[in-house]
Amino acid sequence: MGSGKLETDGKPETAAAKPQRPGRRPTAQARAARDQVDAIFSQWRTERPDIDTSPVQIYGLIARIQIQCTAFIEEALVPFGLTRGTFDVLTALRRAGSPYCLTPKQLVQSLLLSGAGLTSRLNKLESQNLIARLAEPSDRRTLRVQLTAAGEAVINEAIPRVFDVQRGRLQKLGDDGQKRLLAELSRFAEAIDTWPG
């Protein structure tokens, strides 16, 4: 336990998969998202020319980006046997620091999930020998979720891969463009958080 790596009885560690470089062509899901946003804006502009439909472009673009980001992250995670959902659980545990252990309540709060949503992810990860659910010594009714040694190995390889594909999509903006984007997104997030103040 002191090393932060949990071995599971009788189960061999799973070696982290070597990531493969995904292709540059957009996925069908990403193309469909782009086409849908364009179609929705065009339809509203045609059907209701009397009202300002410009918010559709902004919110539709945000939704489209979210769908596309999920798609390319999912693609990057395939060699590791992970999905975006299971990746998020492993990263939450890894970010917590050694011994990489959190309660289900802490995970729910960190990931903004329902209890049922978390349970399905934990079941999947446990079946892959990437996490273990342990009884709290002081209260057997309370469980803690901990990375196994195999889980730590997998997430340590997956994290740099995901950051690389995210960074690659930002490179065309350049350093100044990325700073401007971050500043505007931060302003927009604050505006939403404080509405209608």
Shape: elongated
Cα gyration radius (Å):
21 Å
H and E order = HHHEHHEEHH
Task: Give the class from helix and strand content and strand pairing.
Answer: mainly alpha
CATH topology of the domain at 81-161: Arc Repressor Mutant, subunit A
Strand content: 5-15%
Query: Which sheet architecture does the biggest sheet show?
Result: 3 strands, antiparallel
Cα(first) to Cα(last) distance is: 48 Å
- What is the number of helices? 7
User: Can you say what the CATH homologous superfamily of the domain at 81-161 is?
Assistant: Winged helix-like DNA-binding domain superfamily/Winged helix DNA-binding domain
Biggest sheet: strand arrangement: 1-3-2
Query: What percent of residues adopt helix (DSSP H or I)?
Result: 55-70%
Low-confidence stretches: 1-24
CATH class of the domain at 81-161: Mainly Alpha
CATH architecture of the domain at 81-161: Orthogonal Bundle
Average pLDDT works out at: 85
Number of strands: 3
